[in-house]
Amino acid sequence: MNLQLQLIKQRSWRRLRRRGAFTLLEIMVAIALFAMVMMAIYSSWHAILRGSKVGIDAAAEAQRMRVALRAIKEALSSAELYTANISYYSFFADTSGEFAALSFVARLPASFPGSGLFGNQIVRRVSFNVERGPDGRNQFVLRQVPLLEPPDSTAKPYMIMLTPEVSLFAVEFWNTNTFEWVPEWPFTNQLPRMVRVALNFSPPGRGHAQDVAIETAYVSSVAIPRELQIPPARRGIGTQPGRLPGQQPLPTTNPRLQPGGPGGAGVIPPSRPIR
């Protein structure tokens, strides 16, 4: 009797064990489903990280372009030139190479990058150019040096790398004689009235036409002649506001620039895009 009970218990236990265990096929199916779920989670996580990186890179590129364009516009809008000291105030513009280069003197505001390092020396020579970096990429560089430092001095100017990679830096100048944009400015003793700048910070081969930022900087200063740098003994009486004694109005045959002409005075014709 006891033997029969033991046999019955063993059979029941075996049945319970067979019912509570998994077969090899069930385990393989479960592992496959778990692997698919993990792959889906990893793919979603990788897509989120990649999208976040693309967004961060695009925001950083837009910020760098905004800072660079603002620096160029602020410097050009406060440019100065005195012909009596042309060796210090000369305006250099080189557009013969793959990238343009600018160098001029400006009365820079306190918000200009690097102004805190120069103290009260607000009049400085600034230079914008593209240089090959240590890693082989084209860097957009801003340099500053105090005005009283000679242009051929061996002193090392303060350098700021505005962006580690640039694929386009081009400038054009508004010619007041022909009323059109010209790609060169050979006059080192004159300031252009307007300068148009084109920048693209996309890597070579990956940039598009819509990635190019084009801004126009208005140069409000003019070259001060040598004779006007010495204060006269006395000023004339009855001069018109905004005109120096003895100065005659500049003649013009362009009806668009004459008072009351088509489009009003001072209207500049449409310009062609930078190529």
Task: Tell me about this structure.
The chain has 275 residues and is an alpha+beta fold. The chain has a domain at 57-227. The strands form 2 sheets. Strands 1, 2, 3, 4, 5 and 6 form a 6-stranded antiparallel beta sheet that branches. It has a 4-stranded antiparallel beta sheet with strand order 8-7-9-10, covered by helices on one side. It has helices at 2-20, 24-77, 86-89; strands at residues 79-80, 92-94, 101-107, 123-132, 138-146, 158-163, 168-175, 180-182, 194-200, 213-218. It has 3 helices and 10 strands, in the order ααβαβββββββββ.
The stretches of 5 or more residues where confidence is low (pLDDT under 50) are 234-275
SS content category: alpha+beta
Beginning-to-end CA distance, first to last residue = 106 Å
Instruction: List how many beta strands DSSP finds.
Output: 10
Report the average pLDDT across residues. Answer: 75
Oligomer: single chain
- SSE pattern: HHEHEEEEEEEEE
Per the principal axes of the C-alpha atoms, what is the gross shape? Answer: rod-shaped
Radius of gyration: 35 Å
Q: Indicate the percent of residues in helices.
A: 25-40%
Strand content: 15-25%
Counting H and I runs of at least 4 residues, what is the number of helices? 3
Report on the biggest sheet: 6 strands, antiparallel
List the helices and strands and how they pair.
Elements: H1 2-20, H2 24-77, E1 79-80, H3 86-89, E2 92-94, E3 101-107, E4 123-132, E5 138-146, E6 158-163, E7 168-175, E8 180-182, E9 194-200, E10 213-218
Antiparallel strand pairs: 1-3, 2-3, 3-4, 4-5, 5-6, 7-8, 7-9, 9-10
